[in-house]
């Protein structure tokens, strides 16, 4: 495994990313639309402004890839759907507009599972995406294109979306860092929804420091998004590297560590020893109801998705991947009473988590109980997604910020993810925990090697 080192001018950064896309994409198949010409023009402009002392913001000259369910004005946005293969939005999503204002260069659009509804990053637009660490493995989902592209050096940063784990799982499976912000912290305006009660756009990059910079630009109230919350975010970047001595880290005694692969469990235990040396305090904590959160979240998420795609579900047809259609149609069986009961369970879950976070500052767990499954996995999309999201759905159901950071590799060379979660609006707390851990480790710097036939 090599250590990645990128830098230089905006033009050099863009050319490096485009070169890596040229080399890698034939193997991993995650680029849907690449705007090489636009990126090159923007890079020249960025370097000219920098030379004049007029850098535009935190992301000046930084190439960023955008998950293809987030609108980009004038640039094809397919939502990974056969229904939208040639769709070109007229307006940027709010987050894209904020990135451009901060100087970011939009390099292009990357793949996802169809309509962001699954972990395999397979869709009717370009087909199956692959994991750069092992081409026979999935890159996770639904933001698998974002995770795989960052791991392969196609961009230093990317945008993903997370409904029940869709930023954190690809981060874990591809050996990078990904943040699910508190729902409402980042505007979803201009993003194709899955479940408005759970959806959030999230930053993905190799390191926590990069994720934090991207998050600082993305976050903020947006009256165009009814879920957006007017919750101030302080200038946290200067204190990102503060000591975590005394931070209370909760180790769940139920659910989160059950049926975890041996390699995953070992890597997480080793990460705990690193955090302990930094002065963190570990507290065993029971999280009652965690076992049931996935079931209740599923009721809401599937029902919401069916409401969004009602006409397309009725139409069916070749525009759908059959596995996605099968999984989403399961939501048609839920009734209004089922939805109401799930919402009451969600309210009770929020109250449970309030008590948990009165005792600890952070919950620690494996992001997923396993490393990336194989593409040949014959489980249904429902079963495969449910298994991988075993730990991530609960946090989404509770509106928690969650951060996945790399913490090791399995014996067969696949990345392993460690997840930090905190109380709603304590996004900075998980970033501080992750930054402290990464200051002592280099798992996030390791990159996959190109296949030998390149």
UniProtKB/TrEMBL annotation:
<dbReference type="InterPro" id="IPR023631">
    <property type="entry name" value="Amidase_dom"/>
</dbReference>
<comment type="similarity">
    <text>Belongs to the amidase family.</text>
</comment>
<dbReference type="InterPro" id="IPR000120">
    <property type="entry name" value="Amidase"/>
</dbReference>
<protein>
    <submittedName>
        <fullName>Amidase</fullName>
    </submittedName>
</protein>
<feature type="domain" description="Amidase">
    <location>
        <begin position="13"/>
        <end position="431"/>
    </location>
</feature>
<dbReference type="Pfam" id="PF01425">
    <property type="entry name" value="Amidase"/>
</dbReference>
<dbReference type="InterPro" id="IPR020556">
    <property type="entry name" value="Amidase_CS"/>
</dbReference>
<dbReference type="InterPro" id="IPR036928">
    <property type="entry name" value="AS_sf"/>
</dbReference>
């Amino acid at each position: 495994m090599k250590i990645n080192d990128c830098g230089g001018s905006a033009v050099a950064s863009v050319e490096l990313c485009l070169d890596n896309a040229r080399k890698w994409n034939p193997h991993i198949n995650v680029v849907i639309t690449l705007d090489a010409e636009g990126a090159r023009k923007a890079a020249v402009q960025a370097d000219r402004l920098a030379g004049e002392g007029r850098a535009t913001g935190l992301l000046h000259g930084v190439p960023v890839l955008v998950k293809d369910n987030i609108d980009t004005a004038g640039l094809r946005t397919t939502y990974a759907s056969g229904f939208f293969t040639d769709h070109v939005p007229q307006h940027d999503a709010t987050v894209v507009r904020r990135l451009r204002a901060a100087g970011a260069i939009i390099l292009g659009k990357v793949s996802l599972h169809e309509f962001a509804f699954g972990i395999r990053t397979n869709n009717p637009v370009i087909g199956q995406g692959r994991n750069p660490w092992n081409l026979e493995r999935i890159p996770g989902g639904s933001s698998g294109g974002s995770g795989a592209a960052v791991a392969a050096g196609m961009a230093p940063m990317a945008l993903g979306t997370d409904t029940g784990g869709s930023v954190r799982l690809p981060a874990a499976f591809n050996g990078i860092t990904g943040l699910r912000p508190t729902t409402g912290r980042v505007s979803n305006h201009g993003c194709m929804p899955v479940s408005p009660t759970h959806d959030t756009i999230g930053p993905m990059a190799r390191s926590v420091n990069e994720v934090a910079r991207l998050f600082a630009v993305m976050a903020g109230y947006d009256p165009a998004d009814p879920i957006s919350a007017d919750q101030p975010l302080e200038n946290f970047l200067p204190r990102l590297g503060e000591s975590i001595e005394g931070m209370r880290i909760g180790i769940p005694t139920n659910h989160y560590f059950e049926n975890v692969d041996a390699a995953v469990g070992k890597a997480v235990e080793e990460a705990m020893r690193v955090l302990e040396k930094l002065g963190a305090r570990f507290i065993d904590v029971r999280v009652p109801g965690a076992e049931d959160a996935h079931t209740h979240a599923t009721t809401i998420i599937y029902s919401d998705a069916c409401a969004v795609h009602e006409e397309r579900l009725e139409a069916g047809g070749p525009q759908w991947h059959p596995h996605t259609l099968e999984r989403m149609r399961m939501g048609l069986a839920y009734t209004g009473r089922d939805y109401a009961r799930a919402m009451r369970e969600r309210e009770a879950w929020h109250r449970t988590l309030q008590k948990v976070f009165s005792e600890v500052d952070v919950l620690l767990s494996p992001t997923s109980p396993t490393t990336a499954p194989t593409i040949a996995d014959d489980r249904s999309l429902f079963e495969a997604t449910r298994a991988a999201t075993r730990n991530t759905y609960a946090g989404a159901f509770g509106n928690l910020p969650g951060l996945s950071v790399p913490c090791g590799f399995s014996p067969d060379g696949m990345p392993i993810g460690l997840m930090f979660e905190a109380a709603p609006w304590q996004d900075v707390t998980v970033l501080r925990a992750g930054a402290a851990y990464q200051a002592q480790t280099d798992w996030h710097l390791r990159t996959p090697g190109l296949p030998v036939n390149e």
